[in-house]
Design goal:
7 strands; alpha/beta; 9 helices; binds S-adenosylmethionine
């Protein structure tokens, strides 16, 4: 399935599961402080619409890992829209993992679950056909989180802001070292007016075994 902007907007605004997820997010947010976005229109635009834009890059039946899922974005909207794919969310914060799994159980979302782990620990390596990540780290750090988990020929879908080109330039060496190639920078505007971009990266070669480096090195000493 590949949705255009109007269809995406309608899906985000009208889908019953996403509405129920939004209510659950707002009620749990009061207890656990999961997201700064709490206004209904902003949830639809900045969380649901934005998350759903990435679905155009998922092949049929994809086995998807979402790294740093937080309160479930883009993980849960993608899982609701793409019942043909399976989704694993990974986050280093237990309360967010608990929230995602509670939401999936409550909303009967069967193709998605979350695990409490750091991106650097994802096992087995090279097992996913797609990896998504939004608002987790700069692109060079993110490449070290995502590319090891992907199988060769899989796609990394990095949700970025308007400075995507600069991030791509900064990640040039990381891409060569880790085995990735930028295929597309897809630009779009949210219904609330903000400019966004998705950087689609193809894994072209196996990632050397020494990556991802332990000890928070991908973030503290990104490949440059
Ligand atoms: N992707 C969500 C979104 O767009 O709303 C959450 C973004 S939040 C700013 C970043 C999330 O990434 C946090 O929930 C944090 O716990 C998680 N995170 C950061 N570094 C991580 C790592 N190395 N491994 C796993 N999760 C990580």
């Amino acid at each position: 399935m590949m949705l255009d902007t109007l269809q995406l907007m309608n899906f985000a605004a009208e889908n019953e599961k996403l509405k129920a997820f939004s209510d659950f997010l707002k009620s749990e947010n009061a207890k656990y402080n999961l997201t700064a976005v709490t206004d209904d229109k902003e949830i639809i635009s900045k969380h649901f619409f934005d998350s759903l834009v990435g679905e155009r890059f998922l092949e049929k039946g994809a086995n998807v890992c979402d790294i740093g899922s937080g309160a479930g974005f883009p993980l849960i909207p993608l899982a609701v829209l793409r019942g043909d794919c399976s989704f694993t969310g990974v986050d280093s914060t237990q309360k967010k993992v608990n929230f995602i799994n509670a939401a999936c159980a409550m909303l009967d979302i069967k193709n998605c679950y979350a695990v409490h782990a750091r991106a650097e620990e994802i096992k087995p390596r090279g097992s996913f056909s797609a990896v998504t990540a939004r608002a987790v780290a700069s692109l060079n750090t993110l490449c070290e989180y995502c590319l090891p988990a992907l199988r060769v020929d899989g796609v990394m879908i990095a949700y970025k802001g308007s400075a995507a080109e600069e991030e791509v330039a900064e990640a040039e060496k990381a891409l060569v070292v880790l085995g990735g190639r930028v295929e597309e920078i897809f630009r779009y505007t949210l219904p609330t007016g903000e400019d966004r971009a998705i950087v689609k990266i193809r894994k072209t070669a196996p990632t050397p075994a020494k990556y991802p480096r332990p000890g928070n090195k991908p973030r503290l000493k990104p490949i440059k």
